[in-house]
Specification:
Helix content is 34%, strand content 21%. By secondary structure, it is of the alpha/beta class. This is N-acylneuraminate cytidylyltransferase.
Length: 422
């Protein structure tokens, strides 16, 4: 296929008008990790990382999630994408990805180019998709797929009980190269496969005709298959993941609910009738880390679930934070404080844990909920903690806030270098 499907632009270039669809396959019956595709990875459902990259790339006429599971469908819809509800015929354990892709193009005849993105590749960025898609839209290729360069010496597998001997597959042991002297090998990393619908229909795969590869750097090549991969992938994503097209936020003001976030929501009564709460020392350390970085922290109590005034004073004195009682319209209550400090909500971090917090979770530059928050609050938050309220959630959100601050500093430094070199 050629760019003849496009039309001439004012600059003389041809605009490719073919319908390009991003398709993420997310079956509910994962054998390795149950519902792996929506398990939280660094505060975001695994599926969300690639959906964010696909949507923000602005390359596709449509973005789809193909699934057979209601919970996966709900998460996908929260990212504003379309759903291909796959049939029972292509939802079996024996069904291949190609079975589902072929069903998708049959049901969506308007689609000309399919970009199959793996949900298990959370370090995918929009620029990867843009540069790869250009092989098809600008250079006339029919298919392109992602690879990573590896430096692994491979040996033939043998059946030892048959007395077989192994032998090298890609090296000469007598002339073993140094790593820096060997270019390595290109291996599929599974991040994405892009192809014309005609190729898929006629050949039953996505790597044919005039085919190209797109090389991704190793730090972006993350694939998650088993639980042991999860903590490693989480650290990689925090460093190399795509956090959105908006520059990382630098928080200057933090609001946090006491009940349900800083505490587990319980108030204890002593024999003498004195009220007490339990606060995790890691969470108090997180507050002090923010204060050390110049972030003002204000703790919130609710008029609907009032903290005893004496208890509020003790918490305020111990943590060095102002404690503020807010009502049902807490966004209105906090708006005045934000304006008094000559800030906008993008400069604010908010940690809530209930439906009443949804508006604040939506408008804050960074927002989070503990893992035991209700679904309505989780859907509004930009970060979902792995820890429940009162058991390290505040500490976890603090680390996320400070990581975004480091990213912002790095971006500013890179911008400075770019301006100096231009």
């Amino acid at each position: 296929a050629s760019p003849a499907a496009g039309e001439q632009q004012s600059n003389g270039e041809t605009a490719d008008k073919r319908h390009k669809a991003a398709l993420i396959l997310a079956r509910g019956g994962s054998k390795g990790i149950p519902l792996k595709n929506i398990k939280s990875l660094a505060g975001i459902p695994l599926l969300g990382w690639v959906l964010r990259a696909a949507v923000d790339s602005e390359l596709f006429d449509s973005v789809w999630v193909s699934t057979d599971h209601d919970d996966i469908e709900k998460v996908a819809l929260s990212w504003g994408v379309q759903i291909h509800r796959r049939s029972a015929e292509v939802s079996k354990d024996t069904s291949s990805s190609m079975d589902t892709i072929q069903e998708f193009i049959r049901l969506n005849p308007e689609v000309d180019i399919v970009c199959h993105i793996q949900a298990t590749s959370p370090c995918l960025h929009p620029f990867h998709l843009k540069e790869a898609l250009e092989f098809i839209t600008e250079q006339g290729y029919d298919s392109v797929f992602a690879v990573v360069r590896q430096h692994h010496f491979r040996w033939q597998e043998v059946k030892k009980d048959l007395g077989e001997l192994t032998h090298p597959l890609n090296l000469d042991p007598s002339n073993r190269p140094r790593r820096q002297d060997w270019d390595g090998e290109l291996c599929e990393n599974g991040s994405f496969y892009i192809s014309h619908r005609e190729l898929i229909k006629e050949q039953g795969h996505m790597q044919g005709r005039k085919v190209a590869y797109y090389e991704m750097r190793p730090e972006y090549s993350v694939d998650i298959d088993v639980d042991i991969d999860w903590p490693v992938a989480e650290q990689r994503v925090l460093r190399y993941g795509y956090f959105g097209c908006v520059p990382p936020e630098v928080v200057k003001l933090m609001f946090c609910n006491i009940s349900g976030c800083l505490t587990e929501g319980s108030i204890f009564l002593s024999v003498s009738g004195e009220e007490m709460v339990s606060i995790n020392t890691r969470d108090t350390a997180g507050i002090r880390m923010l204060q050390k970085e110049g972030v003002e922290v204000i703790l919130l109590t609710s008029s609907l679930d009032p903290f005893e005034k004496t208890l509020s004073k003790k918490v305020s004195a111990r943590l060095g934070c102002k404690v503020l009682c807010v009502g049902e319209q807490r966004l209105d209550d906090l708006e005045t404080l934000v304006k008094e400090r000559k800030l906008s909500w993008k400069d604010v971090a908010f940690m809530g844990n209930d439906e009443i917090d949804v508006k604040c979770l939506n408008v804050a530059g960074l927002s989070a909920v503990p893992s035991d928050a209700p679904v309505v609050a989780k859907n509004a938050a930009k970060y979902m903690c792995a820890a429940p309220g009162g058991k390290g959630a505040m500490w976890e959100f603090t680390e996320h806030i400070l990581l975004q601050k480091c990213k912002a500093k790095s971006q500013l430094e890179q911008d400075r270098i770019d301006r100096a070199s231009s």
